[in-house]
């Protein structure tokens, strides 16, 4: 009995994911010409990340825009850790991709991953100042979403990202933010003093 060997190099799904990794819009368009439903069929595969997750993670703006034009619902797809493409782009600091994703859905700013993090938490933990600016403009209420009792203000101090903290303060009226406590009862000023980051 002869085994039939599957040629993965010709599998459209494999080619789609390779195009996402390389950011090749030409390959994406060719695959869509051959099968107009290829992007819709992604949810039928065993793969947990969509091509949009990969493109957002790697910073391929043109590819991201092309996918959003052809399959805008992909912006809502979660990976196995409940992350949206916006979570990945936020963590990596891909500001232009974040702008494109937010044009499709601003409510994604409040979506929590498996660890309870929203995109703004990831940006604050990494000190992604431009990303923070875009996310807060899209959803100012996200600044008060807590992660294990810590607001993004606490996270900026905890992870030593003072420029990100300073930017966040400009979005808030008044000094009340300095007195908001985390789950341990520590205000931002207490946390900064404990971590010797007071400026």
From TrEMBL:
Superkingdom field: Eukaryota
Keywords: ANK repeat, Repeat
One Pfam family this sequence matches: Ank
Gene3D superfamilies referenced in this protein's UniProt entry, alphabetically: Ankyrin repeat-containing domain
GO cellular component: a single term: plasma membrane
ANK repeats: 115-141
InterPro entries: Ankyrin_rpt, Ankyrin_rpt-contain_sf
Name this polypeptide is given: Uncharacterized protein
Lineage: Eukaryota, Viridiplantae, Streptophyta, Embryophyta, Tracheophyta
């Amino acid at each position: 009995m002869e085994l039939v060997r599957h040629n993965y190099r010709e599998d459209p799904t494999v080619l789609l994911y390779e195009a996402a990794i390389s950011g090749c819009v030409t390959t994406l368009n060719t695959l869509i010409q051959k099968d107009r439903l290829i992007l819709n069929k992604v949810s039928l595969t065993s793969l947990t990340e969509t091509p949009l997750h990969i493109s957002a993670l790697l910073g391929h703006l043109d590819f991201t825009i092309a996918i959003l034009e052809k399959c805008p619902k992909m912006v809502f797809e979660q990976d196995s850790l409940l992350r949206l493409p916006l979570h990945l782009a936020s963590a990596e600091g891909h500001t232009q991709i974040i702008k494109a994703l937010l044009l499709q859905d601003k409510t994604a700013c409040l979506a929590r991953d498996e660890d309870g993090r929203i995109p703004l938490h990831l940006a604050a933990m990494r000190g992604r100042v431009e990303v923070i600016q875009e996310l807060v403009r899209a959803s100012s209420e996200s600044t008060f979403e807590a992660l294990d009792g810590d607001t993004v203000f606490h996270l900026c101090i905890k992870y030593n990202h003072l420029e990100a903290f300073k930017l966040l303060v400009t979005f808030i009226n008044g000094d009340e933010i300095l007195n908001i406590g985390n789950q341990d009862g520590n205000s931002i000023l207490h946390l900064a003093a404990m971590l010797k980051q007071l400026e």
